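Show me any protein, keeping tokens residue-aligned.
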Amino acid sequence: MPIFDTPFAQLDLIRQPEQQKEPLQAFDAADEYLLKHLHEQGLSAATRCLVLNDSFGALALNLAEQCQVSSSGDSHLAYLGLQANARRNHLDAQRVRFIPASETAAGPFDLVLIRIPKTLALLEEQLIRLHGQLAPGARVIATAMLKHLPRAAGDLLEQYIGPVQALLAVKKARLLLASPEPRPAPQSPYPSRYRLEQPAIELLNHANLFCREGLDIGTRAFLPHLPRHLGRQRVADLGCGNGVLGIAYALGSPEAELTLVDESYMAVQSAQENWQAILGQRPVDIRAGDGLAEQAPESLDLVLCNPPFHQQQVVGDFLAWRMFQQARNALVTGGELWIVGNRHLGYHAKLARLFRGVEQVAAMPKFVVLKARK
């Protein structure tokens, strides 16, 4: 992998999760442009810096020995990348204070660096939370590759921070400099809520959730076909989002022991709040994690999954394939993985390479529900 060479450091960075012959870098020209600009402007050791939505520590680790760095984002995989890259480069990870996006980073901050996220609702929530957290004379700088920079991102910076100056593009990357001005305290529109008819429940979604204003069509296709068990099944909702699959299954299987896991902190927060609102104090394990990587082998009877086909702006089936492998490892012999997927993704063939038997439970014009037995 190429070395990330900047005015501040030379770093050997990897993405998370790791894969052999990784085709993508853990940094890009937007990170380079931002760090070069900071070096030209100057930093002091007393500068209190907040980095939002860092890519596997590319920004935070460059600045860790230059100023006081806090980092906040919604990806647990990005956090694991920050930790792994600190070790890889013999840096003290404790020099970077990490705050999950489900919590508010407490300032005051002299400098805020923002990688524009894929979900603009996340950016809006992050900008709202900056109210009252900026020190006098603070600088706010956002960056992205041009192909991932919608006009609405600049509009949000203008709305919540102040006037925005767009610098000339360099290597297809752009910087947006926002000059903080006094603003009235904003009211966050998040979390959003919607109701389901079957099961009859209300769900909330925090800002960074996929399909935030309603149930996504894949999950909608899956729900009527969820299995039901009366016994004490050990069940995981893998990539749980707001927890709807795990909650719906739990409602029909009163003795089941549920684990809900997602790599998004806001998803975990949503699932926790939804579970408590619907199922009260019924025991459950809801956690942020790298899928089922930390799950003990042969500790589950059933895994439910609506697998993602992208990681941030990167589209592909690598994460889904990895989730299938994790599920196989975590399931007991005879245990089952139930998934929903687009027909064209060919999950049946992929599952057949890992599992003893694969059955089609249901088929719709766009989706299939599959059951794979270990």
User: Anything to note?
Assistant: The first strand starts at residue 4 and ends at 5.
